[in-house]
Amino acid sequence: MSNTIPERLRSGGAPAMRGIARRAATAALAVLLVWGQVPAVAWAEAASAESSSAANAQLQGSHASSGDASSGDSSDAANAEQTDDAAGAEQASDAQADEGQQDASESADNITGAADANPNAADGNTTSADGTASGQTEGSDQPADSAENGSTAALDDEDQQVAVSVSIYGMSASGDAEEWLAPYEVTLDEGQTAEDALVQALEENSIAYDATPSEYGLYFQSITSPFDAGNTLSYDGSNYWQFLVDGASASTGASSEVVTEGASYALVFGSTGELPSMVRATFEVYGIDASGNPEVWTTDSLSVEKGSTAAELTERMLDAAGIAYDAEESTYGWYLNSMTSSDGRVLAWDEATGAYWQLWVNGAASDAGASSVTVEDGMSIAWYYAAYGAEYPENGVVADPDAEQPDWEGAYGFGQGPTTAETPAGDAEESWVSKIKDVTDWQTNVSDPLVAHGRVYICAGSQLIMMDAATGKELGRATLVEKVDSIARMIMVDGLIIVPVHNGRLQALTADTLSTVWYTDALPAHEQGGDQQALGSLTVEGGYLYFATASASWSSSYNGYLLCVDIKTGDVVWQRESTQSGFYWAGAAVSGSWAVIADDAGTVTVFNRETGETASTLALDAGSRSQVVNGTDAGTFIVVTKDGCLHKIAVDSRTGVAVELGSVKFGSSSTSTPVVAGGKVYVGGASLESYANSWGSTSYYGTIAVIDEASLAIEYRIISTEDGYLPAAVQASPLVSQQGGSTYVYFTCNITPGGVYRYRVGDKQAELIYTPAEGQQNYCMASVVCGSDGTLYYINDSGNLFAIKGTSSPSGDGGDTPEKGPSESDKVPGDTGTVSENGDDEAAGRRPAGAVSPALQPLAASNGDAATSDDEALEGAAADGSDAEEQASASARATSALASDAAAERGLPSWVPVAGIVVGVCGLAAIGIYLATVRKRS
């Protein structure tokens, strides 16, 4: 091979390389030129996108790490517990096997599994613990981080869960069949066996048993009655413990029966291989507490052998509940003399009151004795300690119209206007915290707190709790006829606590002893919307109470009722149905002969207070989910609608005809009940300013607005603190405190951590004055209330009740003293409403507020005219009942907050686009010089 360089390379190589270099230099200069000409705003957008991506990654990473750690801890604990249980069972089985106690009567019906399956059962239980922990996280109504953790911990196909039921039927000492364990649901992994289900059910219900392994599986030698420790049943020559599947004798042992979804397994002591003939009944005992108020001592249901009497059922249930009793057989049959309460009080015949233990069957006093009543399927058996002729208690509640009431005048509760109490004007600290319910208990609703006469009242489920306002110590509790709904706003009037409860009912209790004085009947449910919900506010005027309900969901309402109730007697004076829409978070305001309320469809109704007849209606552009409040002038009212508009309405004192005087838009949405004080209106909502969240939709910040009542001019519209924007909508009613020449507004934002904010009117920003401890943080829609000493009380979705007190003198915004009226520099430009002297609708136009809080710029500003966006914002801010939507909203808000922080920290420096322009210009000049030189040479 020749080493000579080809001629074409020798002659053309250098020019070729120079051409390549020229092209590369030209391309580089062109890139620099383009880079330099990109507008600065484009670089800012790129920086924002980069920061948003980084924030999303950070958010997901933090969720994943925290979720994994939590899941791992719970799974490890479950694994340890299950492994210990399995080891204990194996040890017990080995000991019994050594004793060699195998009865010749062993049969295939009694075989419950192969001995070598025990290690697998233990492994299966450990896997089940893992799976159950993951399943609970995935299915629970938790914030977004829990939801993400649950989704990442989804079970594999081989670990899918199977739910089955287990029942145990023994015999009483007299030989009658007894249900020792009602159908009990057990969750197992696919591939586990009926033996696993039986063992798990026995152990979880603490039912003692003796079982030994055999070559065919576990053999249950004996099981002890959970009602009578002295009644242990084992093979007696004819009866033994039989294994049944779906009510029929099994053809295989339980260890060979792989669990299937919905299957029912039973252990029956007998010889026929059949389930005993049973009937199920409910059983209740209503005694009295130390104050003489009715209370529930026990309530349960049980299956007994067909033909059993109420006396036999009573003995069984009292023994199971651990209630001591004295009964005897007489010529008239079985007679219950006395029962003893858990605190040692013996209740027997009381000559002074005429009270004795009465038998009630299916809600009516029985004419026959307990030994003469045969229990039938579905029957209700109850014992009630009361005098002859007493009414049957409802949920353990008996009304006593003659109950002594404390002489406490005045009305307290939601919508009572401003306060002059010395609320925290400077630093604030936690006074006490009381756990009202567990954060994972999503079935129990908690009311807004009510503070009066040194007490705090709060409802949890069907319980009203009274606490010492200074210490949080529980002073007493009472049972309600129904549970409270998701929002419940109690009031106190003339020594009575009036509680709105489910099915559109009201219950009045004495404020000192919590004795029930009266309660109203349930209102009719709607075919589509379901039960009536008591979500609104209560209005008191002239000895009467005005109250409204809704049959509704988070986004729609179907109908509702408006009622007038006599406060003293509980009698319903009149009742009207709204067939078009319900009253969701709504309440009435009263002036003269008229009362005014707004519904979920945006219709304002003026009705006669005495008759309930409609005098006039007024249609607004959006629905309302807040209470109507009185204006300063007689006959004027303030209404807030869901689109973030505040309306001023006047009602003619003679005719009841309503006209709109004007309106102003202060936010993108609102469900906040306003407060009128000193010619100003204070109201919360979602901001007009918006930002693009990580889900590709629009979200809003929170806002507090101060509006001049006469002109409807927005004097202050606050959307930020020194740490950034208010993180979410202000949905509750603000607490307004006027003290020391200043006005303070306290509010919450419906997002974690669920703390308390304060705004001093005249300042440029609000401030966060209290943040709950980490385990007590959650969303918050409840209003902040205060006691006479200025202590703040509120509750968030963690189930904790917080008491917050001030610790220091007032602190302003950078030391500024707030103005008595807004200065020109602090006023919000352009935020003026239109007021019509004659109520002309055209004159009452809406002018959107477009100002931005000082020193803060949103990613996008709403023009205040997007109705669809307003509705979407309302649904998200109102914490939709759907788990997925609530979690998505939480994740979006958290992501946007992190994105804002990341943008501030990682945004490109301001000199970068300037440098690009300089380089680009230099590049143009260099290209021009180069091209001129090339032409000269050529």
Largest sheet: 5 strands, mixed
Shape: globular
What is the beta-strand fraction? 25-35%
**Cα end-to-end separation:** 39 Å
Spatial order of the strands in the main sheet?
A: 2-1-8-6-7
Derived from helix and strand composition plus strand pairing, the structural class reads: alpha+beta
In DSSP terms (H or I, runs of 4 or more residues), the helix count works out at 9
- Please compute the radius of gyration using only Cα atoms: 36 Å
Q: Which residues sit in consecutive blocks of at least 5 with pLDDT less than 50? A: 1-18, 33-158, 811-832, 836-910
Q: Please tell me the overall pLDDT.
A: 77
Q: Which percent range fits the helix content?
A: 10-25%
Describe the structure.
There is one protein chain. With 938 residues, this protein is α+β, with helices and mostly antiparallel strands. Helix content is 22%, strand content 33%. It contains 9 helices and 54 strands. The chain has a 5-stranded mixed beta sheet with strand order 2-1-8-6-7. Strands 10-9-16-14-15 form a 5-stranded mixed beta sheet, with helices on one face. A hairpin with a 2-residue loop joins strand 32 and strand 33. Helix 2 (40-99) packs across helix 4. The longest helix is centred in the N-terminal third of the chain and has 60 residues, at 40-99. It is globular and about 105 Å long. The two termini are 39 Å apart.
